[in-house]
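Budget justification note: compute hours in this period were largely spent on complex prediction jobs such as the one shown. Inputs:
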Amino acid sequence: MTPTPTPSPGRTTDARPTGTRFTRVLGAAVLLGLAWLVLFGLFLSPNDEKQKAGVRILYIHVPTAWLAYLAFIVTGIASAAYLFKRTRSLTWDRIAGASAEIGVLFMGITLVTGSLWGRISWGIFWTWDSRLTTTAFLFVTYIGYLAVRNLGGTHQQRARRSAIIALLAVLEVPLVHFSVKWWRPLHQQESVAEGKLSGLMLFSLFVGLIAFTLLYVWLLLHRQRVLAMEDALDDQGLDVALAERRAEGAQV
Amino acid sequence: MFAVMSTSDQAPYVIASYVITLGGIGLYVWRLLARARKIAPQVREEDRPWT
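Corresponding output:
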């Protein structure tokens, strides 16, 4: 167990330790965006002719799925940046870890909302369709990635091993995305690309996309700052342990 | 409109999806900020360059 350093007078104890003016403005925009999403998603947009009220689930299901893809791609890019010698920095590793965690959150929401949508559309919560199966596999892969990050060792060891896994895991993203084209599953094709949504329904979907994109950026900034503080705390604990050991050695 | 949706038997699934989504995100944000507040007093000012 690493000793916890005691707070010194120079350390701050403010209520928003990871916040800045930018994140506060961004946070306000996120709240506004989510309020708009609820307003348009539940109240203002019309029912679909075929899916009826079930279409309203798509305004959160589709954006969270896209943002999960984006989060995993950012994890892959940040991991590559860490492995590349010229750009090697633990900041990239922390961005990768933060983005993967947010991606898992969004992917989990995608699976749950998709399951509820499936109950309405197909009469069942789950089926081993190619899109659903590959999505579940992607979700489990990134849970594994997060578990590997917590295996211990130095920050550099953590960064190296998780970066390699992230570069392999990101290959699953196109597999999930194109599964609806390659295997013709029960899951519907791309509603937006095929022009199945229009007017207020399309607008509601874009409100959701903007709200969740802003939320992703806000979460990424805060999570990677918490990770930076956790790493700094680990280093401080190590420094204290080394200082105590040196003091013991000097007394002998 | 909402009146149309609320009469439908799909309404519970739609509302559940919004509640689970916003609730899940809210819970994650709350835990994230609580963790930040807990460890921040132990971290040196120079290790928090964004402040």
